[in-house]
Amino acid sequence: MYKVYGDYNSGNCYKIKLMLNLLGAHYEWLPVDILKGETQTEAFLAKNPNGKVPVLELEDGTYLWESNAILNFLAEGTPYLLTEPRLRTQMLQWQFFEQYSHEPSIAVARFIQFYLGLPQERLEEYKAMHKQGYRALKVMEQQLIRTPFLVGDEFSIADIALYAYTHVAHQGGFDLAQFPAIEQWLLRVKQQPGYIGMLD
Q1: Whole-model pTM above 0.90?
Q2: What letter does residue 35 receive in the DSSP assignment?
Q3: Rounded to whole angstroms, how far apart are CA atoms 8 and 114?
Q4: Domain 85-190 belongs to what topology?
Q5: Rounded CA separation 164/16 (Å)
Q6: In the beta sheet, which residues pair with residue 3?
Q7: Between β-strands 55-57 and 2-6, what pairing exists: parallel, antiparallel or unpaired?
Q8: What is the pLDDT of residues 88-129, one digit of tens each?
Q9: Superfamily of chain region 2-75
């Protein structure tokens, strides 16, 4: 059985929870409170020296970290990991986009508002994150106008990676009403067999 060290409210951790439930896999969830510094303890750093969640503990006692790397591992041999070279590259392209252009703005804005309560000293940063986050959402919207999922007609880990923080973007002050294709895509993801919500 897998063990997942994570924060229920973290989008990066939710990716792993969603993937495991879509697969019908058995796992144990071990809560980690990032605000209490639990990712910086000696015990946790022994699992992930980078001091971040999620961490996946395998049955042999070894650990994997970085959410998108874990997604690729879990999806191996399943329909969620596209195998045709061009499609697989496009899938990876969206995962890199998520970590470089999407998560650093949308997740940070959400952290400032949802976790910290929008403190005055981080208001300018919050506004900057909105500018970058809306740019990322526009990129997604352009693709989802053309195709039902991020890589054509196939639901894949690219969708799981980007769904995690997009579906809670409103908690960071983002208005998704101006992105109808994204809103329809969010509904399609929720319709996948085995879907589970972030706090379910």
Answers
A1: yes
A2: T
A3: 13
A4: Glutathione S-transferase Yfyf (Class Pi); Chain A, domain 2 (1.20.1050)
A5: 10
A6: 28, 57
A7: antiparallel
A8: 999 999 999 999 999 999 999 999 999 999 999 999 999 999
A9: Glutaredoxin (3.40.30.10)
